[in-house]
Amino acid sequence: MIVVKDIVRRNITPLSTDLMLADAVERILASGLIGLPVVNNENKLVGFLSEQDCIAQMLSGTYHSDSRKVVADLMHREPLFVTPEESVIDIAQRMQGNKPKVYPVIQEYELLGVISRKDVLKALSEMIKSVSFA
Question: What are the CBS domain coordinates in residue numbering (predicted)?
Answer without folding.
Answer: 8-67, 75-130
